[in-house]
Amino acid sequence: MRIRIVAPSGPVDEKALNAGIELLRAKGWDVSEGSHVRDRSGYLAGNDEDRLRDLQDALDDPKADVVWFARGGYGMTRLLDRLSPEGLRHNPKVIAGYSDATALLAWAQPLTGAKLLYAPSIQELGRPGVCVMDSVWSALSGAPLPIPTAEGSRNKTASYPVAGGCLTLLSVLAGTPWAPELEGHWLFIEEVGEKLYRIDRMLTHLAGAGWFARASGVLLGGFTGLGEGETPTDVLERVRELVSESTPVVSGLPVGHLKGKHTLPLEKSAFWDGGQLVFP
């Protein structure tokens, strides 16, 4: 497997990045970095032109199997309007990442053949306890993948493909050409470091934009770093207020900005079996 590492968002932690690369190479995989992955320009991993060039080169590379984000942060949305989908369309590959990678995953959703994984960043792979590694490897291989959940609104659901990601990114994509397709999909949402009223504001915005009305169901991942006294249950209750009674809502997926995270395939069908989310 040939993996191309990109950093179109925030600057990397070099020690953590090295550890992740070592883990992948220990599996016998060919791992290479974009020329500007280790650049730094304030809150960005280098200037827009260099980050764009690295990302486009990786997407266009006919020999690459995976384009994987070094980290999240911010910066991906600055590049979307200049990205070309042609290389990825002709040479489909895996795109892996989460958080700010939500924007690229949504951009790539319409491209038939691309495999999209809401997966840990490279610099998280070598940190003990952060990732469920079996989940990462199963998602990369396309093997059947169950993800445990805390609660669901009914005993079993129909099977729908998954779209979504980090709530902040989804909120800023609303009304743009890169908003994800939601008809007949689960809408997956997770977030970190936002107080409940801010989460409520973003959820209400998505509801006003018709997102919950179009989605066939809602999946809630991790909601960490909430305000004092606030819990993920508060988020679940607000979501239930925003969706119809017939819309299934499944919560407590260990996906997103939390330890022990699983990898969530996007654009792959999944159903809730009463205890876990199952990707056959």
List the domain count as a whole number.
2
Strand order of the largest sheet: 6-14-13-8-9-10-11-7
Based on CA atoms alone, the radius of gyration comes out at: 18 Å
Strand % is 15-25%
Write the layout of secondary structure elements.
Blueprint: E1 2-6, H1 14-26, E2 30-33, H2 48-60, E3 66-69, H3 86-90, E4 94-97, H4 102-108, E5 115-118, H5 122-125, H6 133-141, E6 145-148, E7 151-152, E8 160-166, H7 167-173, E9 186-192, H8 196-208, H9 211-214, E10 217-224, H10 232-242, E11 249-251, E12 264-266, E13 269-272, E14 276-279
Parallel strand pairs: 1-2, 1-3, 3-4, 4-5, 8-9, 9-10, 10-11
Antiparallel strand pairs: 5-12, 6-14, 7-11, 8-13, 13-14
Helix pairs in contact: 7-8, 8-10
What does this structure look like?
The chain is of the alpha/beta class and 280 residues long. The protein has two domains: 2-127, Murein tetrapeptidase LD-carboxypeptidase, N-terminal domain (Rossmann fold), CATH 3.40.50; 146-279, LD-carboxypeptidase A C-terminal domain-like (Glucose Oxidase, domain 1), CATH 3.50.30. Helix content is 31%, strand content 22%. It is built from ten helices and 14 strands. The strands form two sheets. It has an eight-stranded mixed beta sheet. A six-stranded mixed beta sheet has the order 2-1-3-4-5-12, sandwiched between helices. Helix 1 (14-26) links the parallel strand 1 and strand 2 (30-33). Helix 7 (167-173) runs parallel beside helix 8 (196-208). It is globular.
Quickly describe the structure.
With 280 residues, the chain is α/β, with parallel strands linked by helices. The chain has helices at residues 14-26, 48-60, 86-90, 102-108, 122-125, 133-141, 167-173, 196-208, 211-214, 232-242, and strands spanning 2-6, 30-33, 66-69, 94-97, 115-118, 145-148, 151-152, 160-166, 186-192, 217-224, 249-251, 264-266, 269-272, 276-279.
